[in-house]
């Protein structure tokens, strides 16, 4: 038995432990010692079964390992090295400079995200245990990936207070290049680490650009709704599409999209529509505008099952709108980054949209989250990004 503070579980926790689920909910804890953020030993029936980080949210312990407790630095070093060992060669072989190095539970580092933009690492650490051991985390990261020159912490979001954390955005190592840019496919992108969304870019749709580039879209008119910085449609312009219309509420994202278009010499072929996409899309529809491809990639309307019903109403409106706005024989790419929305639910949505508009749709591809955002079967919640690419006949 280790010297660590102990968390004793109720017998009802045994199933989760047997399935090696890395979350211990508060209701499964009989009694516990230790301070929030401590590394703790987890006991079931008085026997040590796991070790992990103690936190104040509904998830009382984020498990780091099942078995005898280990030194936190040793666990971090091993997991970071393992995450880097296959991602860095894979990224290199694909010519990818921006990718997710650590994807939380899937990499055995719960509530920890590390995105790499060239030699800049951006961290999102949503657990007190990591923040209390920030120096150790960064040291192990630099050992695992010696090419990293700058490390930035970007802890933002509504989920932080329930983890006992506050917004915390700062440069930890090196300096942050205000003009940081990376290519996403053919498209140069500014990386607005501090003011942009996520860690700067949506890396999870990076490979969708390649999926779209196989469609026959020479001379096409493309609508990119909820575009962020528009890499999906700008990539198609670079390949010979005629026009891209970007719809987005963030002025910063749109001005960065324009910067990218200028870099490609394609700014004349881009139209930027800033505002609420629901209103702007309705306006396009009322004016009878049509597109060869409609990309619809809204934010997560259903962060949990509780909001699913309202979310599905929003998705349904957008699906019908997409089918209205696409030309017969054209394509719709519909994405959802809500874990609670399954692939089957997206199919059902497509069916309802098609019935509503008397259209025929064929699902030709189901894009998902890319290789650098892996899913652990123990934590299906990690599978959040789904899409359907459809051909539409009307
Ligand atoms: C999932 S992201 C899109 C990512 C983008 N497709 C990419 O690959 O980079 C959703 C985007 O929708 C924008 N957004 C959220 N609600 C919106 C609304 N009501 N109207 C317009 N844009 C909105 C957000 O600012 C965000 O950029």
From TrEMBL:
Domain S-adenosylmethionine-dependent methyltransferase: 191-356
Keyword annotations: Cytoplasm, Methyltransferase, S-adenosyl-L-methionine, Transferase
GO cellular component, one term: cytoplasm
PROSITE patterns: PUA
Main location: cytoplasm
Signal peptide: none
Record Gene3D superfamilies: PUA domain, RNA methyltransferase domain (HRMD) like, Vaccinia Virus protein VP39
Places the protein is found: Cytoplasm
A GO MF term: methyltransferase activity
Alphabetical list of Pfam families matching this protein: Methyltrans_SAM, PUA_3
BP-aspect Gene Ontology terms: methylation
Domain RlmI-like PUA, first and last residues per copy: 7-64
Domain of life assignment: Bacteria
CDD domains from the UniProt entry: AdoMet_MTases (cd02440), PUA_RlmI (cd21153), RlmI_M_like (cd11572)
Family: Belongs to the methyltransferase superfamily. RlmI family.
Protein name as annotated: SAM dependent methyl transferase
Organism whose genome encodes this protein: Thermanaerovibrio acidaminovorans (strain ATCC 49978 / DSM 6589 / Su883)
